Amino acid sequence: MTATRSRGRGAPETQGTPTGADVRRLRDLLRSAILRGAYSGGRLPGEPELMAAHGVTRATVREALALLRAEGLVDRRQGVGTHAVVEAVLAPLAEAHGAADPGAGSVFDRRMRPRVLDRSVIPLPEVAADRLGARAAEPCLRMEYVALLGDVPVAVATNYVLFPEAERLRDVPFVSDWYALLAEAGVALGESEFVLGCLPADTGTAGLLGLAAGAPVVTLEQVIRGPGGRPFDLAHIQHRGDRFLLVSRLPRASARG
Fold first, then answer.
1. Residue 161 half-sphere exposure, CB side, CA atoms within 13 Å?
2. pLDDT tens digit sequence for 203-238
3. Which of 13, 29, 22 is nearest to 63 (CA)?
C-alpha cells in the first residue's frame, strides 16, 4: 500500500507522486518570497521546513525548487542548501508611469543609469506616427538605451519623441532614468499610458539584458502626453521580470450597489 499523509482540508497526497498543481502553487509562493527578499541572507529554509510549512511532500518541494533553479532564481548545492541568486527591486506603478514623484530609496530616485545605444533624429515610423497622432516621416528623436541598476541590466527601451520636446532632449546629459531626463530638459509630463504584455526575448534583447534567448521578458508600450493632452513620446520597453517588479495599489473607487 502506498503511504499517504493528511493535508488538512484537502485530499491526501501520495508522497511519491506530487501533483502539478501542488508544485506550481509552491513554486509561485517561493518565487514571491525570493523576489521580495523575504529570506535572510538569501538562504531558503531546508526541505523539512518547507514540507512542514506548506503541507507538501519532499518530492513536491524538490520539484518546485527545480523549477526555480531552471528560472535562474536559486542555486542548490549539496551540503550548502538553497540560496536565492537574484535581487529584485519593487517599483510602484505610479512611479513607473512618471505620475508620482519617487520616494526615498526608490529605483527612480536616481538609482538607475543608462547605457545609451542610439540618440539620433530620424523620420518618424508610420506605426509610431499613428500611435502619436502625428505625420509619418516627420523628424523625431529616437532614444534607445539599456537601463542599469548597479551593473545589472534590467530593461531596454526605445523612445520616439516628437518635436518640440525632442529639441529640448537632444543635448541634455542622460545620467539617470527617463523621467529625470524629462525633468532636467524642462519637458512637462501630463499623462502616461502603459500596455503590458510578455514575450520571449529575441537574441539581441537577450544579449542586452544578460538573458538566454527565449527567456520571458515583460513588455511595455508607453505613450506619454503633455499637460494639454498632446502625445509626444512613444516607448517600447522590455524589462526583466526577475529583477524589476511593478507594484500597483489603488483604493476602491466606490462600493457596489
1. 26
2. 999 999 999 999 999 999 999 999 999 999 999 999
3. 22
